[in-house]
Amino acid sequence: MAIQYIYPEFEVVRNADRCIGCRVCERQCANEVHRFDPESGKMMADESKCVNCHRCVSLCPVRALKIVKSDHTFRPNFNWSGDAINQVYQQAGTGGVLLSSMGNPNPYPIYWDKLLINASQVTNPSIDPLREPMETKTFLGKKTPCIRRDGQGRLIPERSPRLELSTPILFSAMSYGSISYNAHASLARAAKALGIYYNTGEGGLHKDFYEYGPNTIVQVASGRFGVHKDYLNTGAAIEIKIGQGAKPGIGGHLPGAKIVEDVSKTRMIPQGTDAISPAPHHDIYSIEDLRQLVFSLKEAVNYEKPVIVKVAAVHNIAAIASGIARSGADIIAIDGFRGGTGAAPTRIRDNIGIPIELALASVDQRLREEGIRGNVSIVVGGSIRSSADVVKAVALGADAVYIGTAALLSLGCHLCRSCHAGKCNWGIATQRPDLVKRLNPEIGTQRLINLVHAWTHEIKEMMGGMGINSIEALRGNRLMLRGVGLNDRELSILGVKHAGE
Ligand code: SF4
Ligand code: SF4
Question: Which is the most buried residue in 47, 343, 391, 481, by most CB within 10 A?
Answer without folding.
Answer: 391
